Amino acid sequence: MTGATAPLVTVVIPAYNAEKTLAETLRSVSSQSYDKLEILVVDDGSRDSTFELASDYGLTDRRVRVLHQENGGVARARNRGIQEARGPYIAPVDADDTWHPSKIELQLQALRKFPDGQGVAYNWYAAIDENGIIFGHSRPVMHQGNIFEPLLRENFIGNGSTPLMPRAEILRCGGYDAGLRDNGAEGCEDLKLYLALAETLPFALVPDFLTGYRFTKGNMSSNAYRMLKSHALVMAPIIERYPQLARDIRTAEFNTASWYFKKAFLDDDYAQLKKLAPMMVRKYSLQLIVHGVQQGWRQTKRQGIRMARHVLGKPSRPKKRFAAEIPQTGTAFSDRFTAIPAEQAISPTSSRTAGHE
After folding, report:
1. Domain ranges in the chain?
2. Fewer CB within 10 Å, N- or C-terminus of the chain?
3. pTM
4. What is the side-by-side order of every strand in the sheet holding 120-128?
5. Which residue from 20, 16, 66 is spatially nearest to 44, judged by alpha carbons?
6. 313 DSSP β-pair partners
7. Interstrand relation of 64-69 and 134-137 (parallel, antiparallel or unpaired)
8. How far apart are CA 161 and CA 164, in angstroms?
9. What pLDDT digit, counting tens, does each position of 178-222 carry?
10. Cα(4)–Cα(179) distance, rounded to whole angstroms?
11. CA gap 89, 7 in Å, rounded
12. Domain 3-220, CATH 3.30.70.20 — does that match?
């Protein structure tokens, strides 16, 4: 998509006390190979130098516009940016996450398969620590088209910094639900919006790890108990509308709780474990027993198959491979960036300095 046919994409960056990571996030957005961008930083009542940092960055990239509001949470900050947006597409990114330089370009290409580009594009992500070092990645699922039921069973998008979405459809769905924060259940606003969009829109996958999703102690995704409460509130009305999916949703809730428990255990996060352990025993005692039996059976089965192949002299089955390079633990997310071809490079006279109206 180039020239007059290229749509303006509005990048919305909610930022609260983000002075340590915002510049890195802005650089990853400014460096996109697709440069017809409007970049809105929404300062959500920060008490540090977030507003000044973003304003200074806007002096070197005229696509950047900085908005300020009283602290109201990430959902209100994102909604403010969406309301102010000029572009027909919204690409949110949190102020501590980063993007691969080709993310927006590849997502727009993926949306071409839909009439008038009316759909949502997503990709896989690499999990990074406070220093931008990869320590894991999302499961490389291949869901496309109608993804509503698969998304109910597993939030495979996994974060708020990945999708590219039509602005009009976001507004039709009511945007991000700020009421979750008001109920002490902030965390699943993005999942709730994705599910609302998935009820009526097709989703397109870009099969690569294009988002660097940062996990740090104290960030929202680290507060397991609050996230589980948020997940339950999001799913309750969906169970009422789709009672036939209640069992799948309950399984998803258990899997989500198990994921947070395992993460807290591996991180030696005893405060989280003290909250999660009694809750899981009280709420999921039967599921825990079944899960333990299933895990034991799967492990025994895998070991049996490996032993049988060894005895019969058969080679092990190769692991499923993807065209995308799997993120390597211990490497920097930025090391995955390849040089942008010269014909795609942004010149000093491009929109980076000229702006887009």
Report:
1. 3-220, 238-310
2. C
3. 0.83
4. 98-99, 203-214, 120-128, 134-137
5. 16
6. none
7. unpaired
8. 9
9. 999 999 999 999 999 999 999 999 999 999 999 999 987 655 445
10. 39
11. 8
12. no
